[in-house]
Design brief:
The chain has about 130 residues and is mainly beta. It has 2 helices and 10 strands; from the N terminus they run βββαββββββαβ.
């Protein structure tokens, strides 16, 4: 069921709203950046994401193929979201960090998790080991 969630970085400088269905898959990825900062996204389309404040506090980081933009708060360092700009099918998507949402522990615990092997660009497959994700 689609629900509007408020979210923010740790210091509150970056604030947003996103319409998310937490009964749909969320993702844990083993690529170098997701693994290092424990990014846990739910995917939404641009029409379901609203940046409310703090655009001037965001720092963008790109690496490797430079396809995806990773956005961090310049004050607290938290990554509230990322943007997939070169996704199969050509649509732009937002990866909303569930750790930044004002969601209940029960809502987060019930969200289904799909593990993906981003470290090897096998986005449709799970890595051999997932318990550390």
């Amino acid at each position: 069921m689609l629900k509007s969630y408020a979210g923010s970085c740790h210091c509150g400088a970056v604030r947003f709203e996103a319409d998310i269905d937490l009964t749909q898959p969320t993702y844990r990825c083993n690529c170098s950046i997701c693994r290092r900062n424990r990014f846990w996204p739910a995917i939404v389309t641009p029409d379901r994401f609203r940046l409310l404040a703090g655009g001037d506090h965001l720092v963008e980081y790109r690496f490797n193929a430079m396809r995806h933009s990773h956005h961090f708060c310049r004050t607290c360092g938290v990554r509230p979201f990322g943007i997939g700009n070169d996704i199969p099918g050509g649509e732009r998507i937002y990866g909303i960090n569930l750790g930044c949402l004002d969601a209940t522990p029960e809502e987060l615990a019930a969200a289904p998790v799909t593990c993906i092997d981003g470290a090897h660009d096998r986005w449709q497959s799970a890595p051999a080991l997932t318990s550390y994700l």
